[in-house]
Design goal:
The chain is of the alpha+beta class and 57 residues long. Helices cover 26% and strands 14% of the residues. It starts with 8 loop residues before the first strand and ends in a 6-residue tail after the last helix.
Length: 57
């Protein structure tokens, strides 16, 4: 049994279940749905390099 509790319930086939609302599920997450999202990888690389750049003296 899950440790998550909820006051919201729903009856399915005569059995009462607690309803837990989730923001991300396997039905909506891009990794599961196959949806492609554009990521600005060049901007991330530049940001990383700027953050960890060694300064030469």
């Amino acid at each position: 049994m899950s440790t998550v509790t909820s006051k919201k319930t729903e009856v399915i086939d005569g059995v009462e279940y607690q309803v837990i609302v989730q923001d991300v599920t396997s039905d909506s997450h891009p990794a599961y749905t196959g949806e492609k999202r554009f990521v600005d990888s060049a901007g991330r690389v530049e940001k990383f390099n700027n953050k960890f750049r060694r300064t030469r003296k």
